[in-house]
Amino acid sequence: GVFAHLEMLEARAHEAAVKQEETEQQEEKLARLKARVQELRLQRDELRAKVDLQQKGQLGKEGVLSDPAQPSARAVLEWKIKSVKAMLQVFYLTGISGKLTKRGVCFCISTAYEGTYLDSYHLDLLTKAEVQIHRHSVPIFIPLEQIAKKYLQTDIRRFLSVLSDHLNAYAGRRYQADQLQDRFSDRIEGTLQRNSLCNLLVFNYNVSSKSKTFPFNVRLLYGDLCCSLPTEVTVSCTPDAPASLAETAAAHSDLFRRVALHKAFRSFSSAEESVD
Amino acid sequence: MDNSICQVYEDEIQSLEEEIKLLAEKYEDNQQESTFFSDEEILMSIKSFQREFQGQSKGHESPSDLKAQLESLETDLSFLMKFTGIQFTSHSKKTVEKTTNRTVQKHRLSGNCHSLSFQLEFQLLEMQNKENVSAVITDLSIIMESGEDSDVSKFVSSTEEQGNLLTFFRSLSSYAEWYEHRRCTFLHFK
């Protein structure tokens, strides 16, 4: 009786104490968070005011803005460092950039398709004795060794230029195939088959004629590895397709030879829209 | 109920921290992009920085560290200009838009490649997605000195249309070398 009763009272008191502690902790946490929010809001407002003032100052004068407080020598140096770094980043956009290393140069070849920059590739060259490729990130299906054998010792610039042609053409072919798969998946029947070098593409796509659709099969061979347009195009339709479609197949074949793959498909879509 | 209030505060804290980071970057960018110091001012600053620093070690980089960093960067830059033949004479950029995932900058660039000079303006859009940063050029405008040459102007306008900055530089490089070679050959026979 009594013991049990006492135990029960103890337990209740314990429970109440735990709850009390929990509530206090919770309140403390809320108070901390609230304080932090106030602190950050203040910081944010100060920064906003600073930026506004900065922009007002710039609206007043054209060109050079001189800090009302004379910039420190350190600030000037840091400005120059950032400025040179920015110019080095611009070199990335030109296609060939790099930095000197203790034993040579580490070059970076960037690739792009029209205005879109794609992957970049690195080559760590040793130039002390004969030129050697120490490390690189060029994919294995690019004929790097062949190109190096031909140009690396005699004309590094030419070596990089030829390698850049290969890499950019590969990147361009891959980009076109990716764009086709991403943008025109509804017109492609089945999967788009391609090799790692992206110089052989085979796929089926739908062509509509008089509200019926017919599958066309395309085989694109890019014989020139420095080119992102195919050298051989075969477009065929099924034997049961109407004769008029043969003309369409020939027209498409011609188009694929001259125009980038995804652009060719874009023109099909708009042509069909205008016919319907 | 308390937990949801906590969450509200925590969300606000996160968004404030992001906003503060972006504002700080905006302030820095603006400072950087609207200032210009000449080479003489840079040299003077290096000297005066070395004088005033003597003996102090704050945990900031010392003048010799900064000077070494600047020299290394300038060496890399002059190597690239010499190697590629592309000499940039001026570069300015302005950050037009900056959010957590997206930066848009307007660039103005002038220079020459051998004897051919150019002036460029373009917009560079950089977007952060899951794995990497993508870069796209838009609004490319190219002015070339030898713009009267019809081949050059045709090349320039198709390059501008496609935003093909990379191709511009690569072609410029090989064209300039050929042009230079032709010029030297011509002079040789004069």
Question: How would you describe the overall organization of this protein?
Answer:
The complex is a heterodimer of chains A (276) and B (190). Chain A has 276 residues and is an alpha+beta fold. Chain A contains six helices and eight strands, in the order ααββββααββββαα. In chain A, the strands form two sheets. A four-stranded antiparallel β-sheet of chain A has the order 1-2-3-4. In chain A, strands 5-6-7-8 form a four-stranded antiparallel β-sheet, covered by helices on one side. In chain A, helix 3 (144-151) packs antiparallel against helix 4 (156-183). The radius of gyration of chain A is 33 Å and the shape is extended. The N and C termini of chain A lie far apart (93 Å). Chain B is α+β, with helices and mostly antiparallel strands and 190 residues long. In chain B, 56% of the residues lie in helices and 26% in strands. Chain B has helices at residues 2-33, 39-53, 63-84, 150-162, 165-189; strands at 86-98, 102-113, 116-128, 133-144. Chain B has a four-stranded antiparallel β-sheet. Chain B starts with a helix and ends with a helix. Classes of the chains: A alpha+beta (276), B alpha+beta (190). At the A-B interface, helix 1, helix 2, strand 1, strand 2 and helix 4 of A face helix 1, helix 2, helix 3, strand 1 and strand 4 of B. Strand 3 (116-126) of chain A pairs antiparallel with strand 4 (133-144) of chain B.
- SS summary, helix count of chain A: 6
Per DSSP, the total helix count of chain B is: 5
Mean pLDDT of chain A: 89
Strand content of chain B: 25-35%
Largest beta sheet: strand ordering of chain A: 1-2-3-4
Instruction: Report the principal-axis shape of chain B.
Output: flat
Helix and strand sequence of chain A = HHEEEEHHEEEEHH
Beta content of chain A: 15-25%
Gross morphology of chain A: extended
Distance between the termini of chain A: 93 Å
Radius of gyration of chain B, rounded? 23 Å
* Biggest sheet descriptor of chain B: 4 strands, antiparallel
Tally of DSSP β-strands of chain A: 8
Helical coverage of chain B, percent range = 55-70%
- The low-confidence runs of chain B, each spanning 5 or more residues with pLDDT under 50, are none
Strand order of the largest sheet of chain B: 1-2-3-4
How far apart are the termini of chain B?
A: 92 Å
* Helix and strand composition category of chain A: alpha+beta
